[in-house]
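Researcher: Quick one. two chains, 526 residues in total.
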Amino acid sequence: MVDLLANVSIEMQYLWAALILVFGLFGGYVIGQLNRQLLFGLGVEEAVEGTSLERTARNFGTDTITVLARSTAWIIYLFAIVYSLQVAGFVQTSVLLSRGADLLPSYVLAVLVFMGGLLAGDKVEMSVDERLKGVKFPEVSLVGRILRYTVIFVAVLFALAQIGVAVEVLFILLGAYLFAFIVLTATALHQLLAAGGAGLYILLSEPFSIGDRVAIGNREGVVQEVDLFVTTIEQDGRSYLVPNHLVLRKGATLIRD
Amino acid sequence: MVEPCALFEDIVADIDALFLFSPTGSEYEDATELEETPVVVVDTDNTVEADKFVAVPLEFDDIEDRIRFALEGATEQELVEPGDQVAAALSLFGDDRDMIARVRVRDGTHGIYDLFTDSRADPAVIRDAFDVAIELGKKGQKGKPVGALFVVGDAGNVMNKSRPLSYNPFEKSHVHVGDPIVNVMLKEFSRLDGAFVISDSGKIVSAYRYLEPSAEGVDIPKGLGARHMAAGAITRDTGAVAIVLSESDALVRAFKGGDLILELDPEEY
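Model:
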């Protein structure tokens, strides 16, 4: 395009430059507004409600959506200005432009990924806290915080990878962390998982129901309650909580008399 | 010349605690200005986020029941001690605050508190069963009054002391009393006779159960019918509580240990 314009007269060059500038500014504004509408339409406003990113934005008298919409508009403005300067021949910007065109998208993406990570982390913490509100155990808020920082860590990792920083070590760290987490959870919960799996079968097929007299292992009694994890049987004022996987493993004898 | 205020000021003189029943936010704010006297809020929900709070499952008709329940709840939480003198501010005739009572905290629990907190079933489950019975009493089945009997808790033993009248619509289902859909289901199933059996955790175990407890020696007020007799007897034979909606006078009654504990008029709710 630059070659094409090289032959036209200097006046035409100025005209082109002005057109590009006007068009760029106009386009940037319209796209910024459209972006804003789109973000509102997608319900981003509700999604970011109450997150720390939104609060920070509010402290500066703006909000997350405006920041996002403005930044897209500003990137377009910047390109329009640089390009029109180039066309007008004021500055030799081709080097700047080509490098900028290479790098800018990945930087923009990195920033977006990072912001998205912050938002998602906040969201995760908020929803987990909401879920655990009924649990009267103060340390439980740690769960939400750990999840939040995990999400942010992953986002930072992707953002850094996007702009080409060497992050292999961090990825290995993430892998080790996830591996440890999975192993620990599986070890800690395998009893519950086994009981839950067996409980699902018992609840769905109901081989015995409340009021039946059953013997499981060396315990015998009337079934009082069946839930996902345990079956409660009662005999002579004693309630036995039998984990459901034991019900399947040892087998239950229905006693009819 | 004596002002009415001065005449009755000894009602609230030297009290150990003030019990506010269902206060508004501003009312509670004002009350917390009292520095000497602890303020205990009594309500179904802690909407004012008070530190000292006693949850009542229902707004009982009887004002004495209401106060007793609150006092026993507060004693349980060690907010007050037996022997303390407290003042209770509540609404008797309208929604406005219109009465103050001075009460001495007594030792031990009486029936209603015991019914909710010391039964086998969860207090929330009993409350939900009450809600269903009250709802049913208010609306009836297609405008006609219906009767219903809910046996809550100790479901294993209740099932062994009863037999099915028809196939059990709740077989292999996992609905709990308090689930939104349940009101509709129970309303439909209340058309047929028989009791609903609900487990300790609130699972609806069965409908259409014919209860066969031994009714010998069960003493219920004269004039109540077979449904109430069955309800009283099953609670004496098992650890369950029974909540009955009467078809004839549309009152909701609760039995525990063979005794009539509580009587409510659904129209009041």
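The mean pLDDT of chain A is 83.
Researcher: Thanks, that's what I needed.
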